[in-house]
Amino acid sequence: MQDEKTYTGGCHCGQVRFECTTDLAMVTACNCSICTKKGLHITFLAPQSFQLRAGEDNLREYLFNRQMIRHQLCIDCGVEVFARGKKPDGTEVVALNVSCIDGIELSRLTLTPVDGRSL
């Protein structure tokens, strides 16, 4: 397992900014409809490991399907930075769009395939 690191990041226009602590040990390559269409690669964080630093008023929430995941998009540039939801056991979780981390190179990460289409 990799060591945890603190990362910063945000949306394309910079209005939404965050800080998080994670080891990026699991980054998804999900084939569900939203991840496929948006090109999302997600890592899951405990809420205490994620802090929204700027732009709360610049977020719009998007819900679809079972409306269990509250996707958060910047109202200016449209980038989905993160989502809030619950794990199957009811534990709160933040789903962070790894592509929004400053300086991240997806090609250097190990992506874990997830069959979200079948869920």
TrEMBL record:
GO MF annotation terms: carbon-sulfur lyase activity; metal ion binding
SUPFAM superfamilies associated with the record: Mss4-like (SSF51316)
Organism of provenance: Nitrobacter winogradskyi (Nitrobacter agilis)
Domain CENP-V/GFA: from-to ranges: 7-115
Domain of life: Bacteria
Keyword Zinc on entry: yes
Cited PROSITE patterns: CENP_V_GFA
UniProt name for this protein: CENP-V/GFA domain-containing protein
Keyword terms, alphabetized: Metal-binding, Zinc
Gene3D superfamilies in the cross-refs: 2.170.150.70
Keyword match Metal-binding: yes
Pfam short name (any one): GFA
PANTHER family on file: CENP-V_GFA DOMAIN-CONTAINING PROTEIN (PTHR28620:SF1), CENTROMERE PROTEIN V (PTHR28620)
Similarity section: Belongs to the Gfa family.
